TrEMBL record:
GO terms for biological process: nucleobase-containing compound metabolic process. SMART domains: HELICc2. InterPro entries: ATP-dep_Helicase_C, DEAD/DEAH_box_helicase_dom, DinG/Rad3-like, Helic_SF1/SF2_ATP-bd_DinG/Rad3, P-loop_NTPase. GO terms for molecular function: 5'-3' DNA helicase activity; ATP binding; hydrolase activity, acting on acid anhydrides, in phosphorus-containing anhydrides; nucleic acid binding. Belongs to the helicase family. DinG subfamily. This is ATP-dependent helicase DinG. Transmembrane segments: none annotated. It catalyses: ATP + H2O = ADP + phosphate + H(+). PANTHER family: DNA REPAIR DEAD HELICASE RAD3/XP-D SUBFAMILY MEMBER (PTHR11472), REGULATOR OF TELOMERE ELONGATION HELICASE 1 (PTHR11472:SF34). It comes from Tessaracoccus antarcticus. Residues 1-282 form the Helicase ATP-binding domain.
């Protein structure tokens, strides 16, 4: 992997590299990247990973260790910096704008926090905000970044009182605290660094806004690259609710004439009524109530933006104008119903009905703005799906015909050639793990788990004496399985997502080996539980996209309309990726042993099952449930 990354950086040919769990993937790209930066101090390389948590692990653990090694060998230490999106740093203007009334308070934030248990929720939020404001001032005084990850314990509502959306930022020159801006400080440190660690979301924003979010760089390493299209889609997705329209209109009322203000307020009711009339599915007709109502919101927001503009020195007005401009942009996109977008309506108990708009495809954006601009190295444990890299390459805009073999040079002037490499794994999956793929259980159904499947789950958990990670297609299935196992195995502790905070459940699962943890998609990726705590992974259902997911259905239809196989390209490929991630929870170290049980017979009985199976680790495979039970019993020394 080190050799391939080095060659890619030198040649400019993109690299897709699959590095299985345990290979030391981070060092596999950090070593050649840092070596190149030592040789050329004028160069800068960006590393983008999927989540803020992984970004923190790289920035605080992996990269400092690698830099220590580089310095020991070369005597040089390239500068590294972590860069996040604006809302991850406190805004001094937002934090300080509400503090004047607090200056004469007789009771400080620390004293209030001590009494918080006796306060109602509104008062607790106030205490939380006071504590955050005190912390922001400490950060500003000490020259720190006021990074959310370093903040005192807080809620999202509390953080919103000391941070600001990108659109509402006044700008360095207009903001009274521009000279102290923590976001600008973070960007300044990034510009001064050779290695910049960011996340997929900021990489997406950089792609969508002409390269303005990241400092100039010669190459990008995309870690956890299997998440890239999903994160890019999320960054390019917008939503609009009647409540948001109404709140934004009220915020702007002070600076609007009476008639426009009333119209802007009342259009939220029009939008609400249109949502209620809409089906919970994709909207394609320009005559649909939602498209008509969104056009009304767009037109009134445009007039409001015009009224709020002009020359003035009112910061609150500037921010209100930015918020209205965002309403205008989203409403215009929904009303436009462009072929490149998917518009749909969803409903939840908490938020009611919401209008969404997302890109039909992000491959074109990635091709032009990421791979077409810089050398890119994509690294992940799961890029080889169905036996090759084509599915992933196509999803990010690289074409199968552009792949070149080792030793082959890219055509002159070609910036989109790519190579692929599977560096394998240090694990011997065929001796460390068994894949039990059922052939006899009933196929999944929508109304919960069949009795036969519940009985099989209980038997497997019994054989493993707990030590089970259950990955379920829905919260209902997880709760049903947990309830059944608690009845059938009362002496065992079964934790279920929703019983407590997920982080707390995971800590208990790790600390108590005979405990089992059942949950949904949050557990499919990123759970690292080596050792005997996890000797059985149960998957109740092949994780195809929901059949009522408007975005996935639109993407499948687009492939079908283009002459391809939408099911295999979209649904089966996503299922293969998630299955590979889910089954990968079992073997995390060379000493690990266990069983993966997939209780969906379609893996064995359907033609697409072969494609899915090729995406999984090379476990020894059986369709015999008794063999799986005996293997688990032997692990526990019971046979």
């Amino acid at each position: 992997m080190v050799a391939a990354v080095s060659d890619s950086l030198a040649s400019g040919v993109h690299l897709l590299v699959q590095a299985g769990t345990g290979t030391g993937k981070s060092l596999g790209y950090l070593a050649p990247v840092l070596s190149r930066l030592v040789d050329d101090p004028s160069e800068r390389i960006v590393v983008a990973t999927a989540t803020l948590a992984l970004q923190a692990q790289l920035g605080h653990k992996d990269i400092p260790a690698a830099l220590d090694a580089v310095e020991a060998v070369t005597g040089k230490r390239p500068k590294a910096a972590v860069l996040k999106g604006r809302s991850n740093y406190a805004c001094l203007y937002r934090s300080r704008s509400g503090t004047d009334a607090d200056q004469g308070a007789l009771v400080g934030a620390e004293d209030l926090a001590a009494a918080a248990s006796d306060l109602d929720s509104v008062s607790k939020l106030g205490v939380e905000v006071l504590a955050l404001r005190d912390w922001v001032e400490e950060q500003a005084t000490s020259g720190s970044l006021a990074d959310r990850d370093d903040a005192p314990s807080h809620t999202a509502a509390g953080w919103a009182q000391v941070s600001i959306p990108s659109r509402e930022c006044l700008g360095v020159t207009a903001c009274p605290f521009g000279a102290e801006c923590r976001v600008e400080l973070s960007r300044e440190r990034a510009r001064d660094a050779q290695l910049v660690v960011t996340n997929h979301a900021l990489l997406a924003i950089n792609a969508m806004h002409g390269g303005t979010a990241l400092p100039e760089h010669s190459a990008v390493v995309i870690d956890e690259a299997h998440e890239l299209t999903s994160r890019m889609t999320t960054a390019a997705t917008n939503e609009l609710t009647p409540g948001l329209v109404e709140r934004t209109a009220r915020r702007a009322l002070t600076w609007l004439d009476d008639d426009l203000g009333v119209d802007f307020l009342e259009v939220s009711d029009t939008f609400r009524a249109a949502l209620e009339e809409s089906e919970l599915t994709r909207i394609t007709s320009s005559s649909a109530p939602l498209a008509f109502a969104a056009a009304q919101v767009r037109d009134l927001a445009r007039r409001a933006v015009t009224s709020l503009g002009g020359q003035h020195n009112d910061n609150e007005r500037t921010q209100a104008s930015a918020a209205v401009k965002e309403i205008f942009d989203v409403a215009a996109r929904i009303a436009g119903l462009a072929d490149a977008d998917v518009v749909w309506v969803s409903e939840s108990e908490v938020r009611g009905r919401t209008a969404h708009v997302a890109p039909l495809n992000v491959a074109g954006l990635l091709r032009s703005e990421v791979f077409g601009e810089k050398t890119a190295i994509c690294a992940s444990a799961t890029l080889n799906l169905g036996g090759n890299f084509d599915a992933f390459a196509n999803s990010v805009g690289l074409r199968t015909a552009e792949r070149i073999d080792d030793g082959e040079e890219a055509p002159e002037g070609d910036d989109l050639s790519w190579r692929a490499l599977d560096v394998g794994t240090p694990f011997d999956y065929r001796t460390q793990g068994i894949l039990y793929a059922t052939k006899s259980l009933p196929e999944p159904r929508r109304d919960g788990l069949p009795e036969e499947v519940l009985a099989e789950i209980a038997q497997l958990v019994w054989a493993s004496e707990g030590r089970t990670l259950g990955l379920f297609a829905s919260r209902r299935n997880a709760e049903q399985a947990a309830a059944h196992c608690r009845r059938e195995l009362p002496h065992m502790r079964i934790l279920c997502q929703g019983d407590a905070q997920l982080s707390e459940l995971q800590r208990t699962f790790i600390a108590e080996p005979d405990t089992s943890l059942f949950g949904t998609m949050s557990l499919w990726q990123g759970v690292d539980v080596p050792g005997e705590t996890c000797q059985l992974v149960i998957i109740d259902k092949i994780p195809f996209p929901r059949p009522d997911d408007p975005l996935m259905q639109a993407r499948k239809k687009a492939v079908d309309d283009g002459g391809g196989n939408g099911f295999m390209t979209v649904a089966a490929t996503q299922a293969a990726l998630l299955l590979a991630q889910g089954t990968g929870r079992l073997i995390r170290r060379s000493e690990d042993r266990g069983v993966v049980a997939i209780l969906d017979p379609r893996l064995v009985t359907k033609r697409y099952g072969r494609f899915l199976a090729k995406s999984l680790p090379d476990f020894w495979t059986t369709t015999d449930p008794d063999m799986a039970v005996r293997a688990l019993r032997r692990l526990r020394g019971a046979e």
